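User: Here's a protein and a ligand (flavin-adenine dinucleotide). What would the complex look like?
Assistant: Let me lay out the input and then the predicted complex.
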Amino acid sequence: MTQPSVAIIGAGLTGLLISQRLNSAGIITTIFDKSRGVSGRVATRRVELDGHTLRFDHGTPSLTASQAAQLGIQSVSTEQPLDPWFAPSSNAREEPHYTLANGMNGIGKWLAQGKNVALNSPVTGLQSSTKSRAWQIASDSTLLPATYDLVITTTPPLQAAKILETTDSALAYKLKCLSPEGCWSLMLVTEHPLDTPPLLTQRDHLIERVISEHTKGRFSNEWGVYTLQANRAWSQRRMQEDPMRVAEQLLNELKHMGYELPTLLYQRMHRWLYAGVATPFGEAFLLDAQRRLMCAGDWCLGNDIESAVKSADAASSAAIELFGHSS
Ligand SMILES: Cc1cc2nc3c(=O)[nH]c(=O)nc-3n(C[C@H](O)[C@H](O)[C@H](O)COP(=O)(O)OP(=O)(O)OC[C@H]3O[C@@H](n4cnc5c(N)ncnc54)[C@H](O)[C@@H]3O)c2cc1C
């Protein structure tokens, strides 16, 4: 029997973990991602300022020890990519956090090692091949020649719906019922650091997190290097607003929180259109077994890395079973 071949759309943690599990079971995978790098919402932006390179983790800022273990990163050693960031002292229930000096997107890069990943490849549709029960991928206006026995989307749900609408599968309708939640992130450099802890978290406030990037063992020229993450419901209502207006509101809020702002050296907004979902789907994956289409992602079960791992595990077990392989 020829080895089955699977196309995975999205090189975030879910897609990369599914690829890892399927490859271990002898199933060939190709991952397509629209971006120029892997790791999805575990993202890092590099900025050059006055000849210095700064890094902002403007998606997931860090991993807890248990998240690292779930991703298969068992310990911090030279082969593993994590550096300790901080251990909360005031709240004993909170776990220590880990990060990467070169940016959190190193997690995705690490997981992507040895995998077949096609970057800068936005998938716009699927076409069933006339000869066999197999799928071809359309990227922009080009239909790619390779065929796949199964396609697994791991993009956020509305992006997956757009792709699946080009098929006659009912999955697209289910995906469209999920409402996205956006998140505005402000990347900021101040002349001097503010008096904030490494990770300031305040639930249900306009600014939900202040992440001090300069405390992550990175060169920062003694500047204050920050990522501010806004409340998601607040952000969702302002997704179409002028970024500069939103930035102004976030900076005013920082002042209301009691932080006197030194001279700003840099500021840039990032609009996460699909930071998460208002209500998760409630099942670990979606499957159209007849058409051999599957959808997975954190949004199936939640808005976090634990949910991405659980969805990836369940989806890959189902895919392995579909092909009658053993995991
Ligand atoms: C601001 C922010 C802060 C967060 N903080 C935390 C946190 O503290 N703790 C935590 O556990 N989680 C956090 N998360 C959530 C965490 O990042 C996600 O749970 C996790 O990254 C989801 O991975 P995924 O692979 O399911 O999805 P994604 O990472 O979104 O991956 C999907 C991939 O699909 C690609 N894609 C989309 N459309 C197409 C297309 N048409 N063709 C090809 N590729 C496509 C995208 O480029 C992306 O790489 C945060 C997220 C955000 C946005």
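Summary: The pocket of flavin-adenine dinucleotide is lined by residues 9-15, 32-35, 40-42, 59-61, 122-123, 154-156, 159, 163, 183, 185, 229, 272, 275, 297-298, 303-305, 308 (CB under 6 Å).
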